[in-house]
Automatic annotation (TrEMBL):
Transmembrane segments: none annotated. InterPro entries: SAM-dep_methyl-trfase (IPR019614), SAM-dependent_MTases_sf (IPR029063). The gene is rlmL_2. One of its GO terms (biological process) is methylation. SUPFAM superfamilies: S-adenosyl-L-methionine-dependent methyltransferases (SSF53335). It is an enzyme of class 2 (transferase). This is Ribosomal RNA large subunit methyltransferase K/L. Pfam families: Methyltrans_SAM. Its EC number is 2.1.1.264. The keyword Transmembrane does not apply. Keywords: Methyltransferase, rRNA processing, S-adenosyl-L-methionine, Transferase. The lineage of its organism: Bacteria, Pseudomonadati, Pseudomonadota, Gammaproteobacteria, Vibrionales.
Amino acid sequence: MRSAELSTFFEQLESELSSIPNELRRLFHGRGRCWEGLEQITADWLQGQLVVQVFKQPEAQFIDALRQGLIDFSQSAVWEKQQGKTIVLQHRYQEGAPAEVVIGDLNSSPVVVENGIRYQLDVGRNQNFGLFLDMRYGRDWVKERSKDKKVLNLFSYTCGFSLAAIAGGAKQVVNLDMAKASLNKGRQNHRLNEHDTSKVSFLAHDLFKSWGKLKKFGPYDLIIIDPPSFQKGSFALTKDYQKILRRLPDMLTEKGLVLACVNSPSVSEQFLIDSMKEQAPQIEYQYRLDNPPEFKDINSQASLKAMVFALNK
């Protein structure tokens, strides 16, 4: 991380903030390694709040220059035009990922919009604020294909895919995640969008002990698998993903679709293609979804891989 490159960071912030729609967006993605000297910094616009995250401890000089640059940025014309209110600097390299409010007053539970869907976030208390912005096209894809469909959302977190599916006209969505608090946030977000929650199930279960229960809700027209790379005691991507894939043929309707995702930089798209071919050969690879342009990565295999498969019975 180099202080001399911060001028580039602020130039990109100004350019992106002046051109985005009235939605939340990532404005700067240094972790894609396309900006030399800025590889460990990101910036997200939460419709009035700017959240800047630093992932690796830099020299004190860098943090001081970044902090002063953010203060100066709050005086810019684009900040005023976009009605900016708060700037938060989150130190992800420190234990607990503490959030420092640089400008304004933190709104820790803002309501934001993406593609017509409202989400209430949780800012400043956790490493993540409740919605992974690189999955924007994935949520759009689900919304466009959910009309009158039955959807299974595995590792659902705060149920972003579920919100997209119901907004797209799904007749039923089943969300499964071990974290009850995340599912509760998903339920709140469905209510925030005035969705019919009688169409949505929230199962706080261990996936690998729940296949019988999930099968009773099925079969499904669309299954979404978006697991963490590693979850202590419950999931290791390269070891456990195959256990899920081999169950899919019995869970899908004829011509059912699977959106299988991996967001580990050390695992390529070929892992999913080969694993599906080995575990469920009747489910065939179709294509990989593009990532949003703001998440450009110097190595496409290191970024989010959202892969579409279809059952061919």
